[in-house]
Amino acid sequence: MAPSALRDQFFGLLDLPPEGEEIGPGIVRVVGWALTEPAPVERVQVVVNGHDFGPARLGTERMDVARHHRVPHALVSGFEHLIDLGEVPDLGDTATVEIRATIGTVSEAVLATRTYRIQPSTPVSTEPSQRGRRVTDAERSRLVRSRTDRLLAGASAGDEGELNLVAFTHDMGYGGGQLWLSELLYQAGAGRAFECTVVASREGPLVDDLEAMGIEIYVTPDAPVNDMQWYEARVGELGVWIRDRGHNAALVNSFGSFFGADVAVRLGLPTVWAIHESYTPSVIWSVAFPPDYVHPDVRAAFDRALCQVQAVVFEAEATRQQYAEATGAGRSLVVPYGVDLARIELYKKDHSREAARHALRIPENCKVLLVMGTTEPRKAQTMLAEAFAQVSGDCDEAILVLVGDTGTPYAAALKAFIRQAGIQAQARVVPVTEDTYQWYRAADVLVCASDVESLPRSVLEAMGFEVPVLATSVFGLPELLTDGETGFLFEPRDLAAAAHALERILTANGEQLARVGAAGHRLVTERHDSKGYASDILRLVEGLRRTPEALPSSILTSGTATWDNEFSSAESPRPKS
What we know:
- The protein folds into 3 domains: about 120 residues, Sandwich (Immunoglobulin-like); about 240 residues, Rossmann fold, CATH 3.40.50.2000; about 190 residues, Glycogen Phosphorylase B (Rossmann fold), CATH 3.40.50.
- The chain has about 575 residues and is of the alpha/beta class.
- Strands 13-12-11-14-15-16-17 form a 7-stranded parallel sheet, with helices on both faces. The chain has a 6-stranded parallel sheet with strand order 20-19-18-21-22-23, with helices on both faces.
- It is built from 20 helices and 23 strands.
């Protein structure tokens, strides 16, 4: 059916914010669904008071919609968008939110238009003190914080003695950020060259890997971010524990470990904070927590830690730019992420493509499009499956393999769509696995459709295997990939763009794919070996121990190396992933 014939067949709804609700002047989450029965919508735009906030994320699960619209794409017809009303010029007292759905270039429908009142500023609350004076929330928070600071005063050890590192991470699962840390600690010789303890808020398979290196693991609950008094109590408890163990430097892994950055800064420890998430500092709170859940003084503690920490490192310049104003002057820098290329080369030598395909039951004549990453909305696996369903009919030998099923409702919707779309013979969803190399070895192309990524580990590993990469042009990916030369790029949150990109890959000949794969391999070999970033991070830690006031960039350009890979894989079991 021609796109123009679809104009009167759009269905959809704006679920959030609900009708009649007052909305705050800051971050607002917009949620709804949109479809036509003949075809899924290709883009959903969110416009507020005439200000275009760009495309919404597509493909979120909507089992409820599928009960009323008996088409496969109804299962994944949801959309969502985080918008910052502070970006709307002359916002005033009201915000008119308009949802526009598009198919092709000629068929567009306004699905919903709602006008909301903007919440007025909340006055500062007070309550009587024991002596009858009104005490503001801000005063109470200062009192609570000052008690903790007195408890932790004078803890810094600076450059005294050998390095004794405490590292904070959000969990110990097989995610990209967690593997960034485990790879770094392995390459740096943690547990052998120097003492190291990893503090995590959740268990996971990396616990065994790190303990095998001689690293101590302490799993402790997340800080209670909704209650300032209990948050400060946890800061004090963990701070005293770190001080008593003699830790003299800190490494903080991801935004989700900001509690560790707060503790380390208040202890006066030389600290390096690695932030992987490509959200702005204001938006990321709405991604991580429910609305109004985080106490404002905990948010303020994060802001102070981000400004005071000696070094904040990023994988991509686009992500660093988002945090540039929030970090201390000259304290942020890009340290390119890396993967273990030597290990990849050994694997390639010992495992042939044919053997990998035989083990995975993949026919030799198939063109395998591999998606490697936990199934979650920001990675857009459902949108990619929709795009594949549109183009795979012209390429019977193509197979889409999505590795990373975590058993979530989103993953269930992905599998249901594949069944109902009738592409189960060409598309398979595979659980999270520690043996990712086998899939890279069997693949023809790696596809990354994420709308938020800094620099995915899967992309670098695929390039190490000489597998060409098709990826969205977000954050660090266009910094890494040049379209048609070292990879292929397409626009995120756009079903038509994804379908066109897949068609481009499926019709490319083997010679073209091999040329791009080889160019990508040369690039990753030159710039993204994990030994390089491990060396840089350790140099930052040791440089800040000696000279806490030094700028991170000056430490890395000083030419003074403190790490020589003395402790290699021969002395410690290699992490499994």
